[in-house]
Write a structure and sequence with these properties.
Blueprint: H1 3-15, E1 18-19, E2 22-23, H2 25-41, H3 47-78, H4 91-122, E3 125-127, H5 135-149, E4 156-157, E5 172-180, E6 183-190, E7 198-201, E8 207-211, H6 212-219, E9 228-239, H7 256-267, E10 272-277, H8 282-292, E11 299-301, H9 320-325, H10 337-341, H11 345-351, E12 354-358, H12 364-375, E13 379-386, H13 394-404, E14 408-413, H14 421-433, E15 437-439, E16 446-447, E17 451-458, E18 461-469, E19 481-488, H15 491-505, E20 517-519, H16 523-539, E21 545-550, H17 556-568, E22 571-576, E23 593-598, E24 603-604, E25 608-611, E26 618-622, H18 628-631, E27 634-640, H19 644-659, E28 664-667, E29 673-675, H20 685-691
Parallel strand pairs: 3-8, 10-11, 13-14, 14-15, 16-27, 19-24, 21-22, 22-23
Antiparallel strand pairs: 1-2, 4-6, 5-6, 5-9, 7-8, 9-10, 12-19, 13-17, 17-18, 18-19, 20-27, 21-25, 23-28, 25-26, 26-27, 28-29
Length: 694
């Protein structure tokens, strides 16, 4: 195929990702990750922060191949004729389109890396290329290699007694075309991970750094004493991590934690879905592809690095004052005066609802509440859902202490939180040993809800305190993710929360809740009912509007309801950080819908669903995105915002997000994203919220 024909074929593959008012979810995710990469090029971000965005882009891409491409790989094996319900593509067609887009993104990523490396050098930090070592540098780095890295290497020459080693997921290897005594052989060795990723060398004001893999690339041949090296290639494989976490009735008699441990171990043994190489060595690449049983289209030529995680540590090599100038200014989450002044969190919540907006507000009031509950004699029960925890979590310590103090502590801990399974297993073990009741999710539904239910007994009467949030109970991510939280003593909400945990314990999906919308039974239904209310208002000539913020929008039933609402004249404004399968601005279909995405310093993570305006406004905060996996296949909660003051604060918060003309990107009717046209003063919503209490 000629070059021009090949380019057209690739464009045709990508064009199939968009079908009128719908866009394929995988393509939409790739567009989101491109917006992450754009932040690495955005000069409004400090240099070291842009380096982190490059690392995040590649880390995201790794997970995308492990999970999403892995899932499509599985689907193609089992159901090759099944088509995506929005664009009609089979799994194989989606994979082909993904591979085409990703090849372009690798080139853009390398261009970004070259620019960042140049800027780092100007800032006094040089990332070295082994091919450009001066004789003195080569001698110094060679000596370091011989003394610190070579002893950790396990080179292998493949023959009948040394069969092919297993290539582990995301580990780097060197492959060599060797010759000795007229015989041609293949040499292979893993690049060690037990050493620092960066080595500083040389003297003077300039800081010279070289990665471990660059040292192995330059000097690794020394491990093959007596052999002639004809060619060499660095490689890395990515394996399918989309393993099945479902259990059947025959598993009931077994400990689910044991089942999950076995499944986690399988992850490293699953099929390869991507090969990355640093050199297009025909012989070596063909050898590896044959060993892996992989088609050439899954192989990517990578300039630069396979993994940029080391960029998070670059600032530690610079003087503190120099590094500070290349980072975002430090900040500390606020604690409201009312919270600081209150002698007791329990009494404060009994008098008024408490609202927290992470990371602008500190998580400390939630931690303080749990600490109080662990000690207060009125508290008889604490129940909590846990999806992801921070290392050394204070929440675990509070729950342990509560249990040891005789409180009934129930922890619903999700063992199927992808890539956090082992952390959650460890936390479950610690809490169980402290006497907590542990529930491992709910049959084949992930429990993704964010809720704490506290039951108090005073004068033979029960009362409740309930925490409802959009994000995990994780002290670390509360400083990096934007999430909303409400702590309330509303009795009806408390009774719903208590019922929710009872239903989890008996695997009942069909609870009858007065305030909460709970997936998979009532959340989607409740959202659609609210959209229908706005459709009815529009048809009656009344003001009708919807404002919503979420991470992803893929649920076709809700998308189609949004389209119906748009056609009825309802004004719909959406903030969708990541995947959005709805195309706005399509004539006769979605012209009353706007979609924007904000990627900035903090990960936008809050979910808000607001219907109507003024006194008629109905608003929810939720743990759920409007994705089929959330609405139909997980246990999620949407909680109504009852307090008028909090409702206004969240409305103002949304207003700031919609006013962003710095970090925001708007989706066009062609399913592409463009910068918001800046009219008036620049508004960076996240920066604004750091300095203004909304």
């Amino acid at each position: 195929m000629m070059k021009g024909q090949l380019k057209k074929a690739k464009k045709d593959i990508e064009s199939k990702f968009v079908n009128g008012r719908y866009v394929n979810r995988e393509y939409s995710w790739l567009q989101f990750n491109k917006r992450v990469l754009d932040q690495a090029d955005d000069l409004t971000n400090p240099l070291l922060e842009r380096c982190k965005f490059l690392s995040i882009f590649h880390s995201n891409l790794d997970e995308f191949f492990m999970v999403r491409v892995g899932s499509l790989y599985n689907e193609n094996l089992v159901h090759p004729k099944v088509r995506d319900n929005k664009t009609g593509l089979t799994a194989a067609e989606q994979i082909d389109g993904i591979l085409s887009v990703v090849k372009k993104y690798y080139k853009l990523s390398y261009r970004t890396y070259v620019n960042l490396r140049r800027e780092l050098a100007s800032a006094g930090l040089r990332l070295a290329d082994g091919e450009k070592f001066t004789p003195r540098q080569k001698d110094e780095c060679g000596q370091y290699f011989l003394s610190h890295i070579l002893p950790m290497l396990s080179p292998m020459v493949l023959d009948a007694k040394h069969p092919m080693m297993r290539f582990e997921n995301k580990s780097m290897y060197m492959i060599y075309d060797l010759e000795k005594g007229g015989r041609r052989m293949i040499g292979v060795m893993a690049i060690p991970t037990a050493t620092e990723r960066l080595h500083r060398f040389g003297r003077g004001k300039k800081i010279n750094l070289v990665t471990t893999e660059e040292l192995v690339r330059t000097f690794g041949h020394l491990a093959f004493t007596g052999y002639t090296v004809n060619d060499k290639m660095m490689m890395r494989v990515t394996r399918n991590a989309d393993f099945d976490t479902q259990v059947d009735d025959s598993d009931v008699e077994h400990d689910f934690s044991v089942i999950m441990k076995e499944k986690i171990e399988l992850r490293s043994k699953l099929a390869v879905v991507r090969l990355e190489v640093d050199k297009n060595s025909k012989k070596l690449k063909e050898f590896v592809l044959e060993v892996l049983g992989l088609k050439n289209k899954f192989c990517f030529f990578v300039e630069g690095c396979f993994d940029y995680k080391y960029m998070f540590s670059l600032g530690s090599y610079l003087p503190a004052d120099s590094a500070a100038k290349l980072r975002y200014p430090p900040f500390k989450g606020r604690v409201a005066h009312a919270v600081n002044a209150a002698p007791s969190m329990i009494e404060l919540v009994k008098s008024r609802d408490v609202y927290l907006s992470y990371p602008y507000d500190s998580m400390s009031p939630v931690l303080r509440l749990l600490d109080e509950c662990a000690e207060d004699d009125r508290v008889i029960a604490i129940r909590i859902t846990i999806y992801r925890l921070a290392n050394g979590s204070r929440i675990v310590e509070s729950l342990k202490r509560a249990s040891e103090n005789g409180k009934a502590v129930t922890v619903v801990i999700e063992l199927c939180a992808r890539f956090d399974e082992e952390n959650n297993l460890n936390a479950a073990s610690i809490l169980q040993e402290a006497g907590c009741t542990i529930i491992y999710g709910m049959q084949n539904y992930k429990v993704h809800s964010k809720i704490i239910s506290v039951v108090l007994s005073e004068n033979d009467e029960l009362s409740y305190i309930t925490h409802l949030g959009t994000g995990n109970y994780n002290e670390s991510t509360s400083k990096q993710y934007t999430d909303l939280n409400i702590i309330t003593a509303d009795r009806q909400t408390g009774e719903d929360a208590s019922l929710f945990f009872r239903n989890i314990a008996i695997c009942n999906l069909d609870g009858d809740y007065k305030r909460l919308l709970v997936a998979p039974s009532t959340l989607k239904k409740g959202i659609i009912e609210q959209i229908d209310c706005q459709i009815a208002a529009a048809k009656e000539g009344r003001e009708a509007c919807i404002a919503a913020k979420m991470n992803s929008l893929t649920d076709k039933a809700i998308i189609d309801k949004f389209i119906e609402a748009s056609q009825a004249g309802v004004k719909i404004d959406l903030i969708v950080r990541g995947i959005c399968c709805l195309v706005p601005g399509v004539e006769g279909q979605t012209e009353n819908i706007t979609v924007r995405s904000i990627v900035g310093r903090f990960l936008e993570h809050s979910r808000i669903y607001s219907f109507g305006s003024g006194e008629q406004n109905v608003m929810y905060i939720s743990s759920a995105d409007l994705m089929t996996r959330n609405t139909d296949k997980r246990v999620e909660i949407a909680a109504p915002v009852l307090d008028k003051g909090i409702k206004k604060r969240i409305s103002d918060y949304l207003g700031i997000m919609f006013a962003d003309n710095v970090k925001a990107r708007v989706m066009t009717a062609e399913a592409t994203y463009r910068k918001v046209e800046a009219i008036g003063d620049p508004v960076d919503a996240q920066n604004y919220l750091l300095s203004h209490e909304v």
